[in-house]
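Appendix C reproduces, verbatim, an entry submitted by the partner laboratory led by Prof. M.T., so that reviewers can inspect both the input and the predicted structure.
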Amino acid sequence: MRCRRLRLVLLTAIAAAASSAAGALSQAAPDAHLARAVRGSILVTAHSGVYRRDASGALTQLTKVAGAQVDLYPVWSRAASRIAFERERLNHAKGGLESCSLMVLNSNGSDLHQVGQVRTGCSGASWGPNDDRLVFGGGPPGANGATLRVVNLDGTGLRTLLRGRYANPPEAGTHPTWSPDGRTIVFGWSAGPVSGLLAIRPDGTHLRTLVRPRPRRGDLFAQPSWSRDGKRLAFFHVDSIARTRTITVSTSSGLRPHALARLPDRLAPPGGFGGPSWSTNDSLIAFPGQCRQQACVWTIPSGGGIRQVLIRGIFVQPDWGPAGT
């Protein structure tokens, strides 16, 4: 039930922002100095679908949803020719979440289709080497357990890499990210038998903990993201006891973690509004935040510095594409 309540918080927040901000979708131009620094397109979601914001600041809507549907966690393929995301359908008669389908479309919005009959736990996906596989997490709604799985792009070859007991909240875990060299998948996990920021090989071997939760602190880790050069990780660290939320940067092995930015804890669930995403040259990190009463997208220098608004309006879940997109 907590899963459903937290997911409804996300959907309600997006819907509320939409209803109270008529015309907000047109207010997406970044500051002039940021426009010069930004290269590559950024995918974001709003209440009405997935949008692509190009380097000039122009927005293009790629998918359209309405009613009891919402599109979540768009992510660029490595070649930037395709985009994967999850489409959620709500059943209000049953009190919330019904299912998430794993979807793929071309970068121009064409050829939208579901990946086989895959159902996910609505916790994000990531592309593997050669853009022929996807890793995703979370058991389908109602399943008494959490999973990390890979599937071929045509829907075949579904395989479970890790299975754990029921995660509470499920949103605190998974959100997997596949390394640039294709050798490692990193993900948050709170379903046991181990927990924290974990890493595993794509064949399901060599499971290891990169960042361990502290005893009795309620630490959760969500939405890890690899730097383009594969040397660093950025992720959300949530302290459920102190009610703090931090964008943390570490080495690719989880060493020397340090806080890059502290965010309001009211952005719940832990990874629901999206996580950090590295710019094309690793100099900036985009992340979801708030601009007064609206959701929006910010940037901050990856080495630390002043954060600035990149996209104003009711946008969440940013994913920065390669240069030239």
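Confidence is low (pLDDT under 50) at residues 1-30. Additional entries are available on request from the coordinating office.
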